[in-house]
Amino acid sequence: MSSPSRNGVAVRPGNGIATVFVLCLLGACAGGKESEVIALTGGNPERGKAAIRAYGCPSCHTIPGVFGADGLVGPPLGGIAKRVAIAGVLPNTPENMIRWLQNPPAVNPKTLMPNMNIPESDARDIASYLYTLVD
Ligand code: HEC
């Protein structure tokens, strides 16, 4: 039997926090460099920044590097690259971030963040920008 975590990234259910920890140790979630966030998400951070404006995220979130993004409805997104959880319910991994962005109420029906019908390609771009936010 091969271990499910042989490649260094744990995949067992319930092991999400450990997964994030492993990613952080590898420098993945702490990196924030453009090449790293592209590798992590398959998205492009510059396009992501534009998409963040286009989808109106700034009206609800304070987002470093995005002009006018000083919304206070949702949590500030500075340092999101290093946070352990997404919205308190998902381990902060690239795939979970992309999933969250695409449809938050599908993850947590009680969340106030709306479903903006974001296609996967845009969600990847947005996630890549968010992972540049290390502080
Ligand atoms: C109508 C207001 C609103 C809009 C628009 C909105 N959000 Fe949110 N967002 C929230 C709220 C409220 C939460 C907290 C959700 C929760 O904890 O259930 C949240 C949570 C998040 C989180 C998790 C933050 C954390 O600290 O765990 C991320 C990431 C996020 N939003 C990104 C975005 C992005 C990117 C956009 C634009 C595509 C966006 N949001 C648009 C209200 C909004």
TrEMBL record:
Pfam families: Cytochrom_C. It comes from the Bacteria. Residues 43-134 form the Cytochrome c domain. One of its GO terms (molecular function) is electron transfer activity. The keyword Metal-binding applies. Keywords: Heme, Iron, Metal-binding. The keyword Iron applies. SUPFAM superfamilies: Cytochrome c. This is Cytochrome c domain-containing protein. It comes from Methylocaldum marinum. The lineage of its organism: Bacteria, Pseudomonadati, Pseudomonadota, Gammaproteobacteria, Methylococcales.
